Amino acid sequence: MECGKKKLLLIVAATLILRHSTATDGAAGNSSVARPGCQDQCGNVSIAYPFGIGTGCFLEGFEVTCVVEDHHYVPFLNLSTFVEGHQLLDINVTLGEARVLSPVSWYCIDIDKNRTMNNRWFVVGPHFTISRTMNKFTTIGCSTIAFIEGENKHEYISGCTSSCDKDSIDNSGQCTGMGCCQTSIPDNLNSFRVTFLENRSFYGDTSDFSPCSYGFVVDENYFNFEQSYVSYTNFEELHGDGGVPLVLDWVVGNETCAQAQKNLSSYACRDINSYCTDVPDFPGYLCNCSQGYEGNPYLDEGCRVSNEYGSGELAPFN
């Protein structure tokens, strides 16, 4: 009986230690996300510095607002003073990426042959570009000719076209031109808008089964084409938030690492165990924790020994 009590006490003690350890680890993890004293969460999105909510909690150009929509907290990234903020989905400090909701543009013909169109500019701020490697310009429809126009260092325009009848819509999940088309976008794109031309399809009038054409820029890892998409009159609402995920690349500052390191008071790589990386063909740089460390290099003491190394082990020299 005494032995059983001792075992029970050991189990309870071990459980309490584990809970304390988990809580401590969680607190440490949170402390390396936002600036001390700043809100580190909005809804289910972690807000990692240099992004932040409230005065003194973000670097210039990285402000996030947390608003209530349908009884839920939703973060918005304020990328431009000229347009409303974009809903923020997640932040990757290591890769210098952020995902936001991108608008879906559309052109529809109803049963009475009335035409309606909705498109608007998507614009980002000076520290951001629309990722060329992660996104694709995508169109959906059986009688679709769509163009994407935008700006990087120059004006840019490209197009995509798709045609199909009821029996020829691609069912592979890929965009092959039969109901769906995809094409790449250029480097350093900072704004875009989708426009449409009315297309008299090779297959004739398709408005009875494909009344709308859609165009958008989307994270290619997110999007898989489905045959049913061509028949929707509200594709943008399929995803619940009126848009599709788009990946932004971001940098801090507007200079190279060598230039930024001349002024340590404004140098963004704050942790002693961090290093700076230049970004090709774009003004600004990124910070990362040194080998053997992980966390947030934009914060003082934001990089901690990686889980790869135990608390009693030393991280390797750089």
Describe the structure in your own words.
With 318 residues, the protein is mainly β. Among the domains are: 99-241, no CATH class; 256-301, no CATH class. The chain contains 2 helices and 21 strands. The chain has helices at 2-31, 257-260; strands at 41-42, 45-46, 64-69, 72-77, 86-92, 97-103, 105-109, 115-118, 122-123, 128-130, 135-140, 143-151, 155-163, 180-183, 191-198, 212-219, 243-250, 274-278, 285-289, 293-295, 303-305. A hairpin with a 2-residue loop joins strand 3 (64-69) and strand 4. It is elongated and about 65 Å long. The termini are far apart. Mean pLDDT is 83; it is low at 1-31 and 311-318.
Comma- or semicolon-separated keywords:
318 residues; mainly beta; 6-stranded antiparallel sheet; 5-stranded antiparallel sheet; disordered C terminus
Outline the fold blueprint.
Layout: H1 2-31, E1 41-42, E2 45-46, E3 64-69, E4 72-77, E5 86-92, E6 97-103, E7 105-109, E8 115-118, E9 122-123, E10 128-130, E11 135-140, E12 143-151, E13 155-163, E14 180-183, E15 191-198, E16 212-219, E17 243-250, H2 257-260, E18 274-278, E19 285-289, E20 293-295, E21 303-305
Antiparallel strand pairs: 1-2, 3-4, 4-5, 5-6, 6-17, 7-8, 7-16, 9-15, 10-17, 11-14, 11-16, 12-13, 12-15, 18-19, 20-21
